[in-house]
Design goal:
- Chain B: One of its GO terms (cellular component) is Atg1/ULK1 kinase complex.
- Chain B: It comes from Dorcoceras hygrometricum.
- The complex is a heterodimer.
- Chain A is an alpha/beta fold.
- Chain A has 6 helices and 8 strands; from the N terminus they run H-E-H-E-E-H-E-E-H-E-E-H-E-H.
- The relative contact order of chain A is 0.22.
- Chain B has a domain of 177 residues: HORMA domain (Cell Cycle, Spindle Assembly Checkpoint Protein, Chain A), CATH 3.30.900.
- Helix content of chain B is 34%, strand content 8%.
- Chain B is built from 17 helices and 6 strands.
- In chain B, strands 1, 2, 3, 4, 5 and 6 form a 6-stranded antiparallel sheet that branches.
- In chain B, a hairpin with a 2-residue loop joins strand 5 and strand 6.
- In chain B, helix 1 packs parallel to helix 3 and helix 14 runs antiparallel to helix 15.
- Classes of the chains: A alpha/beta, B alpha+beta.
- Chains A and B meet through helix 3, strand 5 and helix 5 of A and helix 3 and helix 4 of B.
Chain lengths: 267, 610
């Protein structure tokens, strides 16, 4: 049924909602629903080359000061595996967690990611109650034939990574939220212990995410375009920030599709 | 491989990609698991060979050079075992590195096994694989990146980082093995391990597959244990990376009756002290270099060298120090002369005149070539020749440079003044590094010296080194100035001193001379100790120098102007030849007295000896 719905969509590419992770515990044990992969894989033109991939992470709730490290880690890891030009890998140790991730050693990339993370943090501060999302997209530039409506270059996104983060809004010392249900916090535990447990859970989840990213980038690489002879990030990419009202393919859309089964226009 | 389906060029490309993939994956794994003995060079220019798979890794690790992988068939799997080497439980002891343990005391555990291989088509599910070499190459680029990232997420990476970290003395090691065939893990081992398969890369008539079996939990190996990386207190810390790493530290020989210093002397009973390594805070902690042994055993002397008036050790420390001095024999003998200033090398030279009445450092010093530069002991004055107690001993290099003036007093038999001067210059460079400790030391010693002024009197007529007299006037070293208040009264100046050298003497000297002349007749009859004490007192209380040439006419044998005679003004006064002759006569008399007394003293000391 879902396939039929998607088949009616007028899209140049197939979007796989791969990597929708179910929340299990406070910082989600990431799981992949295999059936979901197969259900949504549609090839409109019968060509593997036109497959696009979209990876969406379940919404996490992190502390304000953890946003930067979590985002840096994830974005750089993805970029390292998609910047297929000549790179000098650079190992970076996270300060808040015992995790080492790899950057592609490009100063421009580092600067751009930091800039976008700053924008995301600003957005989160301004709209703490909205579901904020940061998206890393890789695209190909195709010169579209100019019409008298549009005369611009078309971007064909062949891979998109959606990272959803919320900043924890709980008051200090509060430990009763369901997000922390994985952590058994006794009534006698101090706030510091709860924080430590929370931090350990987040570290474990972040490590799981990195494992998953590594798996996905390796599993799904047929759709990666040919590598141009460039150094560093070989494919054009962009990082966009959106809030819940702007998201086109968030969990909301997915939930709507599952619940209603009606065909939806994918923008 | 089946050559029929693909043109030869294509086939050649596949082989090349496969070969380079094996090499590159081995490079990545060894780089991430085996600590390098030397830091990787990061040159801006990228070699052509390093551009494979668009991943610049730098120089190949030394480990790869020894592997004859070029003889390996591309069809054979490449298996890389990462092995954690730890001590067996029953050998846990306080030792410094795994290198000191025999093979039977080490446990090797495979914590990771990487398998990189080309699987021909017939061994996998038959399917049409459209894999031009370009696509294969592109996918293998991605796969190498994932291998690189995965190496940093697996548990063994933490152990690798521990080994690589500086200043760590870890009780484990990481080794590796590369082979084509290996025995599978036992069931028990498999239960504790997890497997991860990287998505295979389609290649010509087959696929390139990478997998890793790894231990998820390394907590059993106590990698974080305090024993393995316990903090060490470096008692002979030299404080600067600029200090040559292999300096010989003088052992703190015992000086009888000498005061204990404020520096505790740590007696190590470690068994495997490498005599060739000293602990440095900046030294690499890589076990391979044996640096784990460095927190060790060179703690005979209180930490800092170069102290001009080195502390003396309490008699209670004598025994422990002797043990350690003997242990240092090998170390010091092994040190080439370039470590020691040339004039100070080797000879177990007589100790400097020591100004403490107690103690017999002579013998210990004779045993040890690294006798400490201690406060000159009045009983040890062998001859007036040894101006500088520290210079006359092979271990004296650690003393701070003495004033260059002092070198002129050094009699030729035991050292060239020029050589000593060079040492001083060398040492003066280091003087600044040793500011705090020597100063404290000096203060303590000066207090002691003053309290023991009675003992100094015995030096009055001895042939002890006049060094300290000179040092008082020296202002070349800051800490010498700090010690300037000491009364290491070395009352006697040896001859051959050029009076011109005294131009910079302190004001006390001339005043002292004047006082001495007036008391010369009375002090002869006093005991030696009393005389020295009196001299010291006079020196301290003497008024500024006076410009009276008559003061130089006569001297008592006991009284030695610490510095020479005269001030600047005196030398500018016109002097008669007769004055000079008289002065010379006085000096000669003093010299004779000193020589005779020091000889007598030495003889007496040797008889009583420890």
């Amino acid at each position: 049924m879902v396939i039929g719905s998607l088949a009616t969509l007028n899209l140049p590419m197939v979007v796989d909602l791969i990597g929708i992770f179910e929340l299990k515990g406070p910082y989600c044990t990431l799981t992949m629903t295999d059936w979901f992969l197969q259900a949504l894989s549609v090839i409109p033109r019968g060509s593997w080359g036109d497959v696009a991939r979209r990876f969406t992470m379940i919404r996490w709730e992190v502390e304000h000061f953890e946003i930067r490290e979590v985002l840096r880690c994830i974005l750089h890891t993805v970029l390292f595996h998609r910047a297929l030009g000549l790179v000098r890998p650079k190992d970076v140790d996270l300060e808040l967690f015992e995790i080492t991730y790899v950057q592609c050693g490009d100063m421009e990339v580092e600067r751009k990611i930091d800039e976008k993370i700053d924008q995301f943090i600003d957005r989160v501060e301004k709209h703490p109650n909205k579901k904020n999302q940061i998206c890393l997209s890789f695209y190909e530039v195709k010169n579209k034939q100019a019409t008298w409506f549009t005369n611009k270059v078309e971007r064909l996104y062949w891979e998109q990574w959606y990272i959803n983060l919320n900043v924890a809004q709980h008051p200090k010392g509060h430990s009763g939220k369901s997000n922390y249900s994985k952590i058994v916090v006794g009534p006698g535990d101090t706030a510091a212990e709860a924080r430590t447990a929370r931090r350990a859970a987040l570290e474990s989840s972040l490590r799981d995410v990195l494992f998953q990213i590594i798996r996905f980038v390796n599993d799904k690489k047929d759709h990666v375009p040919p590598i141009p002879n460039l150094e560093g990030v070989s494919f054009p990419y962009e990082i966009t920030i959106s809030s819940s009202s702007d998201s086109a393919f968030g969990m909301d859309m997915f939930k709507r599709m599952l619940q209603t089964g009606h065909p939806s226009m994918l923008s | 491989m089946d050559l029929h389906s693909y043109p030869r060029a294509e086939h050649g490309r596949f082989e090349q990609i496969l070969n380079q993939f094996l090499l590159k994956s081995l490079h990545v794994i060894l780089d991430s698991r085996v600590p390098a003995s030397s830091p990787p060079s990061r040159s801006v220019e990228v070699r052509k060979s390093d551009k494979w798979f668009n991943l610049v890794l730098g120089d190949r690790p030394a480990a790869m050079e020894s592997l004859s992988f070029w003889n390996r068939s591309l069809m054979e799997p490449m298996i890389i075992d990462v092995i954690l080497v730890t001590e067996t439980q029953n050998t846990l002891s306080d030792h410094d590195s795994l290198a000191t343990l025999g093979p039977e005391m080490l446990t090797e555990t495979v914590v990771e096994r990487w398998v990189v291989q080309y699987e021909p088509l017939r061994s996998v599910a038959p399917q049409i694989v459209d894999a031009s070499y370009k696509k294969t190459y592109k996918k293998s680029i991605v796969q190498l990146r994932t291998i690189y990232s995965m190496l940093r997420l697996l548990p063994a990476y933490k152990a690798f980082r521990k080994l690589c970290s500086v200043n760590r003395s870890c009780h484990f090691d990481i080794n590796y093995k590369v082979y084509s065939f290996c025995s599978p893990f036992s069931r028990e081992e498999e239960r504790s391990m997890k497997k991860y398969n990287f998505t295979p890369v389609d290649a010509q008539q087959g696929r390139l597959s990478v997998s890793v079996i790894y231990r998820e939990d390394l907590s059993d190996f106590n990698l974080d244990s305090g024993m393995s990386c316990r903090p060490e207190i470096i008692t002979d810390y030299v404080g600067s990376p600029l200090t040559p790493p292999m300096r010989a530290f003088p052992s703190t020989s015992s000086v009888k009756g000498a005061r204990a210093t404020s520096f505790p002397i740590r007696v190590r009973d470690s068994t495997s002290a490498s005599p060739f390594q000293r602990p440095h805070s900046w030294a690499s902690g890589l076990h391979r270099d044996g640096y784990s042994q460095q927190y060790q055993a060179f703690d005979l002397s209180p930490p800092l060298n170069r102290s001009p008036y080195e502390y003396s050790i309490s008699p209670t420390d004598v025994q422990s120090n002797r043990i350690q001095t003997q242990r240092l024999h090998a170390y010091h003998r092994s040190l080439s002369d370039d470590l020691l200033s040339p004039p100070l090398s080797s000879s177990p030279s007589p100790s400097p005149p020591a100004y403490f009445s107690a103690g017999n450092p002579i013998h210990t010093r004779m045993h040890s070539e690294t006798a400490p530069v201690s406060i000159p002991h009045p009983m040890l004055g062998r001859s007036p020749r040894y101006l500088s107690p520290n210079l006359s001993d092979s271990s004296r290099h650690s003393l701070p440079p003495l004033s260059p003036r002092n070198t002129k007093y050094d009699p030729s038999p035991h050292g060239s003044p020029s050589g000593i001067r060079s040492i001083k210059k060398q040492d003066s460079l280091r003087a600044g590094e040793l500011c705090s400790v020597p100063i404290h030391l000096g203060q303590k010693i000066s207090r002691d010296a003053k309290e023991d002024s009675g003992r100094f009197s015995s030096l009055q007529s001895s042939n002890s080194s006049p060094r300290f007299g000179f040092s008082r006037s020296s202002s070349r070293l800051s800490f010498q100035d700090d010690f300037g208040d000491f009364d290491f009264s070395c009352p006697f100046i040896v001859d051959d001193v050029d009076s011109n050298d005294f131009q910079t003497s302190q004001n006390l000297d001339s005043a002292n001379v004047s006082e001495v002349t007036s008391q010369s007749s009375s002090t002869v009859k006093k005991s030696q100790d009393v005389a020295v004490g009196a001299l010291v007192h006079m020196l301290k209380t003497a008024p500024p120098l006076r410009q009276d040439s008559g003061h130089y006419t006569s001297y008592s044998s006991e009284v030695r102007p610490e510095k020479e005679v005269g001030t600047f003004s005196d030398f500018f006064k016109p002097r008669k030849t007769s004055d000079a002759l008289e002065e010379l006569k006085v000096y000669r008399e003093m010299k004779d007295v000193l020589l005779s007394r020091s000889a007598a003293r030495i003889a007496g000391r040797e008889n009583t000896g420890t």
